[in-house]
Amino acid sequence: MRAKLRDVQVHAIEHQGQQMLLLRDPLQLGEGAIAVPRAMGLLLGLMDGTRDEAALEAALQVRAGVRLAPGLLDQLLTDLDRAYLLDNEHYAQAKAAAADAYRQAPFRPATMDGAAFSPRPELAATQLQAYMDQLPPAEAEPQAAPIRGLVSPHIDYQRGGAVYAGVWRAAAQAAREAELAIVLGTDHQGSPGTITATRQSYATPWGVLPTDQAVVDALVEALGDGVLFDEELHHRGEHSIELAVNWLHFVRDGEPVPLVPLLCGSFGAFVEGYADPAAHEIYNRAIEVLRQALSSRRALVIAAADLAHVGPAFGDPHGVDYIGRAQLRKADDSLLETVYRGDAAAFFEEIKGEGDRRNICGLPPIYLTLRILDGSTGQGTGYDLCPADPQGTSFVTIAGVTLH
């Protein structure tokens, strides 16, 4: 068997004094995770589908001078296979079965129940209203152009509640009047350059927001089933869209609205200069379809997007101190100015210019939202640096923006 490790989540941990690598399946096809000694990292890296067991052992011995104990590799491969972490027929069958179960369910169920957010409508409304009530009184401003879109965070409500509340208070009337909501969320496991649709509707504590099948049909006609649905199972566990549509349904007082939920994959190849998102055929065809949908109905385009992820929690060698936080805010202010101008190209180029060293996970949905709403201008409604580790040395930055 030529072993090929899937694209799995890997976290360095310490267990009983031993340095380990914790391997998790992002699709959650199996239960739990597998921990292997960190010294096995090279062996895992050699599992690229080109080597059988004998070749793996030989390569490890040549490259690291390590000879495995008899039976150790066989046991490791068995454990990886049982957890669906190898790209093989066993995994393919499990993925297909999970996709069928997801598609046959009556709706896509909420994933953020429990302590984070109540599934009971009256308690959920109380939680979100509490964030609204903590905002300072809204300042009277001159009548702005109608709101056509917004940038809403997708961090948890405990840390991002004030920023969520600020942007959804500003966009409440537009949300209530919307006849269609196009929601673009970060796909944290998405392949490069992908847009992933679903025909499933999203559930919230207030009921179900139906996915607009006609718009999905138009996207299928433009892009094909393979492009749109190959990674549809990501919708099952990805939280970015869900966290925005909860607020959408709440400010509409529980009144449903048709959705077009789209997950946006990695921009890594674009940032590295291998391709240009402005010339990406998948994006251009999808944008054309979505603009057509906007032309016939009063619609709201929502980018469910966070900004920077910096500090040791995200792989940076050093923590973010007081000066670093000031520099981070300055960099975010500069980036947000491109959003306020509605300039998708400048937004992308600013991130590309710094090599995305601040890990802007909202790059794909914000860029595409600005492209869809060509000619829009933005107004900031809130900003925050949210702690991401107990030491206070890692941060996620978030912002709220209305697009007019």
Description:
- It is a single chain.
- The chain is an alpha+beta fold and 404 residues long.
- The chain has helices spanning 41-46, 53-64, 72-82, 89-104, 121-133, 157-170, 172-177, 213-223, 225-229, 234-237, 240-251, 268-271, 281-296, 322-340, 344-353, 363-372; strands at 9-15, 18-24, 34-37, 149-152, 180-186, 195-196, 202-204, 207-209, 259-264, 299-304, 309-310, 378-387, 395-403.
- The chain folds into 2 domains: 9-101, no CATH class; 108-403, LigB-like (Protocatechuate 4,5-dioxygenase, Chain B), CATH 3.40.830.
- The strands form 3 sheets. Strands 4, 5, 6, 9, 10, 11, 12 and 13 form an 8-stranded mixed beta sheet that branches. It has a 3-stranded antiparallel beta sheet with strand order 1-2-3, with no helix packed on it.
- β12 and β13 (395-403) form a beta hairpin.
- The longest helix has 19 residues, at 322-340.
- The chain is globular and about 75 Å long.
Secondary-structure map:
Layout: E1 9-15, E2 18-24, E3 34-37, H1 41-46, H2 53-64, H3 72-82, H4 89-104, H5 121-133, E4 149-152, H6 157-170, H7 172-177, E5 180-186, E6 195-196, E7 202-204, E8 207-209, H8 213-223, H9 225-229, H10 234-237, H11 240-251, E9 259-264, H12 268-271, H13 281-296, E10 299-304, E11 309-310, H14 322-340, H15 344-353, H16 363-372, E12 378-387, E13 395-403
Parallel strand pairs: 4-10, 5-9, 5-10
Antiparallel strand pairs: 1-2, 2-3, 4-13, 6-9, 7-8, 11-13, 12-13
Helix pairs in contact: 5-6, 6-11, 8-13, 14-15, 15-16
In short:
The chain has helices at 41-46, 53-64, 72-82, 89-104, 121-133, 157-170, 172-177, 213-223, 225-229, 234-237, 240-251, 268-271, 281-296, 322-340, 344-353, 363-372; strands at 9-15, 18-24, 34-37, 149-152, 180-186, 195-196, 202-204, 207-209, 259-264, 299-304, 309-310, 378-387, 395-403. With 404 residues, it is of the alpha+beta class.
